[in-house]
Specification:
The structure holds two protein chains of two kinds.
Chain A (H helix, E strand, L loop, with lengths): L1 E11 L2 E12 L3 E5 L6 H8 L7 E5 L5 E4 L11 H12 L5 H6 L15 H15 L3 E5 L7 H16 L3 E5 L9 E4 L19
Parallel strand pairs in A: 3-7, 3-8, 5-6, 6-7
Antiparallel strand pairs in A: 1-2, 1-4
Chain B lengths: L1 H12 L7 H17 L3 H22 L6 H5 L2 H6 L5 H30 L4 H29 L6 H27 L5 H30 L1
Classes of the chains: A alpha/beta, B mainly alpha.
Chain lengths: ~200, ~220
């Protein structure tokens, strides 16, 4: 299992934002994406997660292997913590939600409606979803937003545990997680502006 | 898939889930019609099947903009799209959950409301049967409309305009079957057409819905 991305070009709203991205992510490794706001990190991650097609380039090795965590956690405020997690567990075919609850210190909150959680608790619940997916490659977009220092440590532990069992992680973040990870700064890969005669391409 | 269905049903009956919205609207429409038409029970009983069908269709329309928009807003649609479920299954299950929470209650309420509209006795059976055959089509077509407009803030207007023409054949044959049934005429032709429409959209529409959803999620 290894994710190979070669010469990837991604677009947002019809305009190319990043081009020429290539990297290889073998099992047991993490790759941290960095870059200024608006450079296209989220677009790149959505593309790798399969939510949008690339303009050019190849993504290999990611089929049915990727668990994606977006900016929003996809929680239902009317369901309890356990119900929210159990739903994703049964979608991904996981047997139990207990390890995931324990890893993020959510056991005490299990019967609390997700709507009554704080922002950091919601995020922890969102991140615990990754543990029930059973998928090898975690693709995460700013996972540490609204987490306190202890929770960031919980998250780093979870990622370390995942890498130790042969997983891989692709994380866009600006926080130092204390992981032994490679860093890819996407800033230099900013796509060149379109030439005018290419303009129609934006509507396809 | 069953997990998704159970989640949607659970969400619908919990606080703020919107279960009963369509039913309440159906009740309001059919209760108000006799007041606006006036005390003419003959006229009322003639238009009763059509009014029931129109009420059911509008109640269905009312609940459509929540169908996928809520999942889109909280990000779970993105996560579902990357889950092992095919998107065609997701939209089919969503349509089924919508039918169970909106269409089925309308079918069950229709005979009660038929009394208020002085529906002829022979008509009750055919109103229920035609609604039972037709409301699944309304849910499935509605899911397609919801998939088209997902991501648009306040997309309700566009959704109604897009879905309305697609609802017309279902309404024509459904209301015709109920009307003929109420008058004691043969109902086979409109009923078969209605069943055909439902079967076709249930078979084909999920592919269209999933395709437009994929484009909208980009």
């Amino acid at each position: 299992m290894s994710l190979n991305v070669s010469d990837l070009k991604v677009s947002r709203g019809g305009l190319p934002v990043l081009e020429g991205i290539s990297f290889s992510l073998p099992a047991g490794r993490a790759l941290i994406l960095r870059g200024p706001n608006g450079i296209g990190k989220t677009t790149l991650l959505r593309c790798i997660a399969g939510l949008q097609p690339p303009l050019a380039g190849v993504i290999a090795g990611g089929d049915e292997q990727i668990a994606y965590a977006a900016h929003s956690d996809g929680l239902k405020p009317a369901l309890t913590v356990a119900e929210n997690l159990a739903f994703w567990a049964s979608v991904f075919g996981a047997a139990s939600i207990e390890p995931a609850l324990e890893a993020y210190n959510l056991t005490q909150l299990r019967d609390r409606p997700a709507g009554a959680l704080s922002a950091g608790q919601k995020r922890r619940l969102g991140l615990s979803r990754m543990l029930v997916t059973g998928r090898a490659i975690w693709v995460m977009d700013e996972p540490t937003v609204s987490l306190d220092r202890d929770s960031v440590a919980l998250f780093a532990d979870a990622v370390r545990g995942h890498l130790a069992t042969g997983g891989a992680a692709l994380i866009a973040t600006h926080i130092d997680l204390g992981l032994d990870a490679d860093v890819l700064d996407v800033g230099p890969y900013k796509a060149k502006p379109l030439a005018l005669d290419d303009f129609d391409g934006g509507f396809l | 898939m069953i997990a998704l269905l159970m989640r949607d049903l659970r969400l619908a009956v919990r606080a703020g889930g919107g279960f009963g919205l369509g039913l309440a609207f159906f009740l309001i429409v059919t209760v108000m019609v006799p007041f606006s038409v006036g005390p003419e029970s003959d006229l009322l009983s003639r238009i009763a099947p059509g009014v029931l069908w129109l009420g059911a269709l509008l109640s269905c329309l009312l609940s459509l903009d929540r169908l996928l928009a809520l999942d889109w807003e909280d990000g779970s649609l993105d996560l579902l799209a990357t889950a092992p479920l095919p998107l065609e299954a997701v939209v089919s299950v969503k349509a089924l959950a919508h039918w169970i929470t909106t269409g089925l209650p309308l079918v069950l309420a229709a005979p009660l409301l038929g009394v208020l509209l002085n529906l002829p006795v022979e008509g009750f059976k055919w109103v229920v049967i035609s609604l039972l055959l037709g409301t699944p089509a309304l849910s499935v077509i509605g899911t397609f409309g919801a998939a088209l407009t997902v991501g648009l803030k306040r997309g309700g207007l566009l959704l109604s305009l897009l879905v309305m023409p697609l609802y017309v054949p279902t309404l024509i044959f459904g209301a015709e079957a109920a009307r003929r049934g109420a008058l004691g005429m043969g109902v086979e032709t409109p009923l078969l057409m209605l069943a055909g429409i439902s079967a076709a959209v249930i078979a084909l529409m999920p592919f269209a819905s999933a395709a437009v959803l994929r484009i909208n999620l980009r």
